[in-house]
Amino acid sequence: AVVSTQSGHYGRGTHILAADLMPGGYYIDPWFIYGTFDILDGKTALMHMTFYLGRNIFEVQRGWIVHTRSGNKMELDEGVEQLVPNTECTVKYSDLHIQGSCPLFEAYYDGLMSGHIKLKGDAGTEDLRKGRGNLGLCFDSNSGWRPNWQIGRMRGQCKIDVEEPSCESEGADTCQLSLAPQTEGSEWSSCGVGAEGACRELNCGGATPTPQQKCALQKANRINCSLKLGRGLFGFDAECPEEECDWKQAVYSQGCPQEYLPFDCS
């Protein structure tokens, strides 16, 4: 199962992106992944992802920063996997993403506006079947006890602007990103649906996505499909700068200052 978090209906604030309250059917070591959204280049974007694992916590932030429970920044080296203190999770900076791996899930953050969560387990088994302990994004109310998983007291309703245009018809020529997986026997009926919706939102109201947004969206679409089809994350994105270091510097500049960069562009 893959949950993509891109610019969307959720607006600024913090939401539970995915969680399992009772892994294996027991109320032991529940995990939550919170996403905090802000406005970047005029549109809603994922600013950071926070991982709660029992009593332990770590966070990935814009600019490819990883904070531990103690508040320290981890010093990352490109391609090198490191254990997150006090957890069973590892993180590494690779393929222009912070990649986190925990016993029950994997998570990917582009350092700018989009993230992906992939549950571990075999499709079609109880491991990936929704139950009363599983929950996801705000509109996904079929499997939980509440229709809303936005953080805070919202009186059981999703705090979104229902008058906001749906943008379903926006970017009709440029946002046809949903494709059938090109793998025989794939469990996925399509990939690219999330990026297609995000693309329409970026074009909503006659807006024109910035070059940075176009690059991030194209990467998010490719990564989402790669995760669904079990492919590697490395790939070419035509909307992105030809020089990879130009993109690295652009993403880094959007985050908080850090002395130790996870890449070398000297």
Kindly describe this structure.
It is a single chain. With 266 residues, the protein is of the alpha+beta class. The protein contains three helices and twelve strands, in the order E-E-E-E-E-E-E-E-E-E-E-E-H-H-H. It has helices at 193-202, 211-229, 244-252; strands at residues 2-5, 13-20, 31-40, 43-53, 56-61, 65-67, 82-83, 90-94, 97-101, 105-109, 115-119, 134-135. The chain has a six-stranded antiparallel beta sheet with strand order 1-11-10-9-8-7, covered by helices on one side. The chain has a six-stranded antiparallel beta sheet with strand order 6-5-4-3-2-12, with no helix packed on it. It starts with a strand and ends in a 14-residue tail after the last helix. The relative contact order is 0.17. Mean pLDDT is 78; it is low at 137-160.
Secondary structure elements and their pairing?
Layout: E1 2-5, E2 13-20, E3 31-40, E4 43-53, E5 56-61, E6 65-67, E7 82-83, E8 90-94, E9 97-101, E10 105-109, E11 115-119, E12 134-135, H1 193-202, H2 211-229, H3 244-252
Antiparallel strand pairs: 1-11, 2-3, 2-12, 3-4, 4-5, 5-6, 7-8, 8-9, 9-10, 10-11
Helix pairs in contact: 1-2
